[in-house]
Amino acid sequence: MTDHPTLNESGTGFLLDGDPWKGKVFQAAMSFHAPEGLAAVRDETGAYHVDLDANPRYTFRFLEACGFYEGVAAVRDGRGWFHIRVDGSPIHERRFRWSGNFQDGRCTVQDQRGFFHVDASGADAYSLRFRYAGDFRNGVAVAHGTGGALHIRKNGEPLNTATYVHAEPFHKGHAVVADEHGFHHVDRTGRPIHPQRFQAAEPFYNGVALCRGWDGGFLRLRVNGTWTHVAASLEPITLAEIRSLLGQGTRIGLFLRHAERDPITRETPNWGNDVLLTERGIADATRLGQELAGTVRFGIWSSPVNRCRQTGEAIARGAGSGASEIRTHTHLGEPGIYFDGSGVHSELMRTDFHAFAGGYLDSGLALGMRPIPEASEQLLAFLDEQVAEADCTVFVTHDFFSAALMSYLGLKAPDRSDWCTYLEGVCLVKNPGATTAFRRFAGIREGGRC
């Protein structure tokens, strides 16, 4: 059971435990506010406040009344907006063209000269006037001056020297702003915390902000500036769908982890690059090729690492393409497009690969690694170029790269115990003249974890 009434859906009364409260119906009502325990209502007599017993708190009536904030409510009579105490008595004799609510010891109001703030006594907090001024939160408010939007302190002085096309209040140390290049986030000094610009951006919530990219798609931005896409579809694409698309003339690219390999341990030499496929892995890759057989133009790219080449050769045999058509590229491994080469081996000597790689997949940044968005975009450009050359193109890579690209595209959130299964990865669906769509390909069988 609840101990206080809540506003009903029509905004004309209140409910208590789902039932109409006190039989009271108003022309309009607002929620009860703590700690005052009062709600603004309006009926045929005017606007006023009622207490938790549904009784008017005072005898005054106004043209408009808003809720109590910090013990003060904004109301309007025939002369304009002003502020009252909980007993209905006015705090001051001033009248404004408009008033907001008290927040952080200040209330934004408007007079004939513009917007500004008053203190709890109704006195001007400063002499300036703005084109607009918002509520204070943690000592900072948004205002619009002649030079654009800015953040101000309680005395009206700028928080920093930055001005923007648009600015929002600070939330947990960061604010959403926009310049001529787009929306982004800044700290209290006005410094952008990431270089990206977006069509729209929300504040950070538990370290992640939802943003809209210039293509209209949504992204989840981390505080460190890396991001992942919000996928249009999380349903994996099936081999039957792939065959159907190929039959319609759609070009397909499969960016996949290699097939099942022998185990790799910390003692395995050469970072595990010499570990080869199991017999089952070869059989799985061959079966995948058979499922794709009949494609007129079939291309295979592979990481230079032998187990990836083995996978490509088995797929080629199953599909009826010759192994000689397999091409290798270091974007796919050894070292791979996500490595920048500086300091990564020393970091891996200090920790283990799974801990290192897991941290990178979680944050998008790591010593010796390129930021995941930057590397992924370059990788996608490479894949798109090759997909355009054939009807079906298979790219054989490693778990780490497949997981990074799936994460970036929003197709799968890598779990440290399961980045991706064998032969799992990204399916690129490309129609001539149309935008490429991305779907997760879940592999051809269960099992086979990293």
What is the CATH superfamily label of the domain at 239-441? Phosphoglycerate mutase-like
Give the CATH class of the domain at 239-441: Alpha Beta
CATH architecture of the domain at 239-441: 3-Layer(aba) Sandwich
Major sheet details: 6 strands, mixed
List the total number of helices. 7
Salient structural properties:
single chain, Rossmann fold, alpha+beta, 450 residues, 6-stranded mixed beta sheet
Summarize the structure in short.
With 450 residues, the protein is α+β, with helices and mostly antiparallel strands.
Task: Please tell me about this protein's structure.
With 450 residues, this protein is of the alpha+beta class. It has a domain of 203 residues: Rossmann fold (3-Layer(aba) Sandwich). It has 7 helices and 28 strands. The strands form 8 sheets. A 6-stranded mixed β-sheet has the order 25-24-26-23-27-28, sandwiched between helices. Strands 19-20-21-22 form a 4-stranded antiparallel β-sheet, with no helix packed on it. Helix 2 crosses helix 3. The mean pLDDT is 92.
Helix and strand topology:
Elements: E1 6-7, E2 14-16, E3 19-20, E4 28-29, E5 39-43, E6 46-50, E7 64-69, E8 72-77, E9 80-84, E10 98-103, E11 106-111, E12 114-118, E13 132-133, E14 141-145, E15 148-152, E16 166-171, E17 174-179, E18 182-186, E19 200-201, E20 208-212, E21 218-222, E22 227-229, H1 239-247, E23 251-257, H2 279-291, E24 298-302, H3 306-319, E25 326-328, H4 344-350, H5 353-363, H6 372-387, E26 392-397, H7 399-408, E27 425-430, E28 437-441
Helix pairs in contact: 2-3
